[in-house]
Amino acid sequence: MTSAVDNILQKKHINKEDIQFLLSLATVDSERLFHYAHEVKTSQVGRKVFFRGLIEYSNICTKNCFYCGIRKDNKRYLRYTLNDEEVIEAARYAYDNNFASIVIQSGEQSSKAFTSTIEILLNRIHLETKGKLHVTLSLGEQTQDTYKRWYEAGAHRYLLRIEVSNPELYAKLHPNDLRHTHKARLEALALLRKTGYQVGTGVMIGLPFQTISDLADDLCFFRDFDVDMVGMGPYVEHEDTPLWEYRNVIPSVANRVDLSIKMVAILRIIMPDINIAATTAMQTLDSKGREKAIFAGANVIMPNLTPVKYRDNYLLYENKPNVKDQPDETRKSLEKHIRAAGDEIGYGEWGDSRHFGKRITNNE
Ligand code: SAM
Ligand code: SF4
Questions:
Q1: pLDDT tens track for 18-74
Q2: Using CA positions, which residue lies closest to atom 4 of ligand 1?
Q3: CB 101 within 8 A of CB 136
Q4: Distance (Å, whole) CA 286 – CA 35
């Protein structure tokens, strides 16, 4: 006898209503969904997980998102920016250890000094690793010219989370001003696509005021926008942010983890060939969170390569894990977790989004 879950999984087009049904499944009934997503992952992108060494370049941010620990108005953290040598050293560690890719992430800044330094760093990384280290940027909203300059200096992928696809919910989570608009976020994603990047986006899961219908819309948004990569994970509260006062109206930790893994599984099924990250926030709320995400369809992981002395000042949320771990410890522990999930690490491989490859070929 086929179950309601099987009936949905066998459909050619899984619609919003189906997604809402899957997101609402009780934990025992989710197993079928997770196993199916695992089969899709195995057949479509294989059992390899790709490393993207994460460099948290600066915690200086000009924005004030209501959920984020490094928002401009939070005075608790010492603000820092890595110097060029620290960035190059982290990039070299990634290169020497066969990670093949890094991510440079930062609070949002758009000064000339900032955009030029990133450009110089990209050129240096390209030169020093003979073009073999792929670079993903996650540096927020920038002008078309900046995106272009960084692309030409060697960045290949860009991550810009839409945060939530519902514009009304977006407005509740950000200050009501021109620096924080949903429209600008959408336009930035379109610009990135136009510039030639592999485009990644994502959302937070379990936010105050967010509904199951919103989350289903988020998954439909990824499909409609035809993204190449997604990084999404649970919202984790932070005491020094305006959203802290709503900490009692969000789903429990267990429910946020459960919802996040379901989101990964459903996304793998509806977009079988994209790259999906097992994010740090999943690990923050559940020590097995990343393994669960890998089983359910994730194929990218971001080991933290930020020099340890800065990490206490890049706390987007409470209880961020592994802030004291040196890169070697992180690498070994991730290797163990990935093998425990039955996968292997794609050392020395860029692990580009297969979806991107097909998108480019079809457009030629
Ligand atoms: N500043 C850039 C931006 O916002 O696109 C990149 C860095 S920002 C710290 C990266 C991501 O952190 C954001 O897109 C957001 O989804 C996530 N983040 C911030 N605060 C969070 C929280 N409290 N819980 C979970 N994720 C959070
Ligand atoms: Fe700044 Fe990004 Fe945090 Fe918003 S999410 S406050 S842009 S670092």
A1: 999 999 999 888 999 999 999 999 999 999 999 999 999 999 999 999 999 999 999
A2: 140
A3: yes
A4: 20
202: Cβ below 6 Å to ligand 2? no
Q: Nearest C-alpha to atom 11 of ligand 1 is from which residue?
A: 161
The residue type of 18 is D
**Helix residue spans in the chain (DSSP H):** 4-9, 16-23, 27-44, 84-96, 112-128, 144-152, 167-173, 182-195, 212-225, 253-270, 280-285, 289-295, 308-311, 327-340, 354-363
Ligand 1 pocket mutation pick from 54, 108, 139, 204 by most atoms within 8 angstroms of CB = 204
Structure tokens, 156: 């290949």
Within 10 angstroms of residue 178's Cβ, the number of other Cβ atoms is 8
Name beta bridge partners: 231. 277
Within a 13 Å sphere around the CA of 178, how many CA atoms are in the beta-carbon half?
A: 0
**Which H helix or E strand runs over 155?**
strand 155-159
Backbone torsions φ then ψ of 136, nearest 5 degrees: -105, 140
- pLDDT, one tens digit per residue, over 12-28 is 999 999 999 999 999 88
Residue nearest to atom 2 of ligand 1 (CA): 140
Spatial distance between the Cα atoms of 100 and 98, rounded to a whole number of angstroms: 5
Q: Which two tokens stand for residue 267?
A: 């996304």
How many CB atoms are closer than 10 A to CB 42? 13
CB atoms within 10 A of CB 38: 19
Name the closest ligand to CA 159.
1
Ligand 2 neighbour 331 (Cβ under 6 A): no
What distance in Å separates the CA atoms of residue 144 and residue 146, rounded to the nearest whole number? 5
Beta bridge partners of 345: 49
User: Three-state DSSP class for 235?
Assistant: coil
Q: How far is CA 76 from the centre of its chain?
A: 25
Ligand 1 atom at minimum distance from 108 CA: 1
Q: What is the CA radius of gyration of the chain?
A: 19
pTM, 2 dp: 0.97
CA pair distance 4, 275, nearest whole angstrom: 28
Could you read off the pLDDT of 328-358 as tens digits, one per residue?
998 998 898 898 888 999 999 999 989 998 8
**Residue 87 CA, distance from chain mean position:** 20
